[in-house]
Amino acid sequence: MEQQPQLNEHNKQEYPPMHTCEHIVNRTMVNLFHCGRAVSAHIERKKSKLDFALPECPSEEQIREIEDTVNSIIGQNLAVTTGFITQDEAVGRFDLKRLPDNASETVRVVKVGDYDECLCIGQHVANTSEIGNFKIISYDYKDGIFRMRFKLL
């Protein structure tokens, strides 16, 4: 019998469709703007926001490209899977700076098809077909931070 890895307890109850969408938005921003993943996130059922460090505000055309790309990925009905690796195996593959000081030696990797993978302990859908349609409802740019607010329809 395979033993379940021992992970840190999770203290937040996410809305799995929105949380999984956050992963797709993060990868889309990294791919389109060559930036890092969000520097700040507030993910809720009704609406969410992500902050990205960017040298300038995306244009209206780029905002549409973000929406179109995210919705295209969602529409591919990708499997969302999890796996487990050690922190040593994660070095160089993932940014470990966000791990808490007391993080377990085993970490969980969440994959959205072949589109994105990251360390995450949250709740996710099993397939992107469960997410719905992504819509950016507003955005602003101040002091090098692009803030995007979005919801799922």
Structure description:
By secondary structure, the chain is an alpha+beta fold. The chain is built from 3 helices and 7 strands; from the N terminus they run αββαβαββββ. The chain has a 4-stranded antiparallel beta sheet. Strands 3-4-5 form a 3-stranded antiparallel beta sheet. Helix 1 packs across helix 2.
Would you count the extended β strands for me?
Answer: 7
Q: Sheet bearing the most strands, described?
A: 4 strands, antiparallel
Poorly predicted parts: none
In angstroms, what is the radius of gyration? 16 Å
Helix content: 10-25%
Mean pLDDT: 92
Count of DSSP-assigned helices:
3
Record the strand order, biggest sheet.
1-2-7-6
Task: Kindly estimate the percentage of residues that lie in beta strands according to DSSP.
Answer: 25-35%
Distance between the termini: 42 Å
Structural class: alpha+beta
SSE ordering? HEEHEHEEEE
Q: Looking at the structure, what is the overall shape?
A: globular
Could you give the topology of this structure?
Layout: H1 16-33, E1 40-42, E2 48-53, H2 60-74, E3 80-86, H3 87-90, E4 106-112, E5 116-119, E6 134-142, E7 145-152
Antiparallel strand pairs: 1-2, 2-7, 3-4, 4-5, 6-7
Helix pairs in contact: 1-2
